[in-house]
Fold this sequence. Notes:
Elements: H1 2-66, H2 70-83, H3 88-103, H4 107-120, H5 124-140, H6 144-150, H7 160-173, H8 177-190, H9 197-207
Amino acid sequence: xxxxxxxxxxxxxxxxxxxxxxxxxxxxxxxxxxxxxxxxxxxxxxxxxxxxxxxxxxxxxxxxxxxxxxxxxxxxxxxxxxxxxxxxxxxxxxxxxxxxxxxxxxxxxxxxxxxxxxxxxxxxxxxxxxxxxxxxxxxxxxxxxxxxxxxxxxxxxxxxxxxxxxxxxxxxxxxxxxxxxxxxxxxxxxxxxxxxxxxxxxxxxxxxxxxxxxxxxxxxxx
Length: 222
C-alpha cells in the first residue's frame, strides 16, 4: 500500500510540475480556441442577419416594382446599398432599380445605378449584365467614348459575344462602319448558333453589306 501511495504521489508531483511549466500556455491556447470559435459563430450569425435583412428589403423592392411604385423601389434600393452593400441582393436590387428608372424615363438615374453596380459589384455575372446595360444607356445618351470604355473590362466568356455586339452598335453610331462590322462579326462567330439573338446580329451584318457565311455542312458518309 505504501508503494502504491508513493507511486501515486510521484505521478501527482509530475502532473504538478508539468502544469507549472505548461499550464499558462495550455490555458491561453484554450482561451484562443474558444475565442476563435465564439468569433466565428458570431460572424455566421451576423451574416445570417444581414442576409435576412437584405432579402426583406429586396422583397419590398420587388413588390413595389410589380405595383409600379418607382419611388418606393428607389428608396428600398438606397437602403439596400447603404446597409447591405456587398450582398447579392444589393446587386440584384441595382438591376431592378435601373429597370424601373428606364420605365420612368429617368435616364441619368439609370446610368448612376448601373455604374454603382459596375464599381462595387462582386458577382461577375451581375456586373457583366450591368456593364452591358450601362453601355447601352450611355449609347442612348450619345456618350460613345464612355460606352466603349465601359466595355473594355474583361467579362465572363458567356458575355463576350453580347459585348462585341454592343460595341458594334456604338461604333456604328460613331460612323465607324468598318470597325462596327468587325465587332459584329466577332459577336456572330462567338455566339452559339442555337441562340436566337444570333439572327439579329446577322441582320445587322447583312444591312451593312457583310452577310455572314455559315460553315458548309459536310456531306454524309456513304
